[in-house]
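Board notes (copied after class):
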Amino acid sequence: LASEVFPDGVLFAEVNAHALPSQMLGDSQRNTLNLLERALPELADKGYPVVVLVDEIDSIATDRGRADAGTDPVDVTRATEAVLQGLDHLAAAAPDMVIFATSNFPQAIDPAFLSRLDLTFELEIPDQSTAAAILADALAEVGTDIDDDAQKKAAAAMAGLSGRDIRKVVFAAMVSRDQSVDVNAPLQETELLQVISSRQHTNA
């Protein structure tokens, strides 16, 4: 659990859901209850408005029907039941807390968890203009000399990718660059296009 207080006084917390499941019997359940019944209520007690992001919620709120079929890790059923119990506790202990849960596999989420949500919505794969904006933001974080026209062409070449995958392409371009390149050197167009081309070849 990582948290940060923003300048506007909102406390933002991000939960690494993948850190909660465990192969040790009972650990997944204990980890989940510890998060929802102790750690998050303690954040709420700090006196700030709290916004929580739980990415890939399907890893801890897995459909118990799938688990019964033997397709998921041991202890997943108890972990899902712990999520449901913990959410009910959190709703009473921290009613002003706002929780966002995301997933790329909504069909894998337990129906009882979905029934507890106030609002659900589906985000489509970004169109070309949105992909270009995501790419520009990712490139700004690492530093680049790639001009706007080249960025738009690169975004078009990544059509069909999610926002996360677009960012992963930028990260892959940074880590796969020649070791002779200074670590602080701006990312070049050829480096980005090389990763895009390699990904397209792999998918083909």
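Comment from the instructor: The radius of gyration is 20 Å. The longest strand covers residues 11-16.
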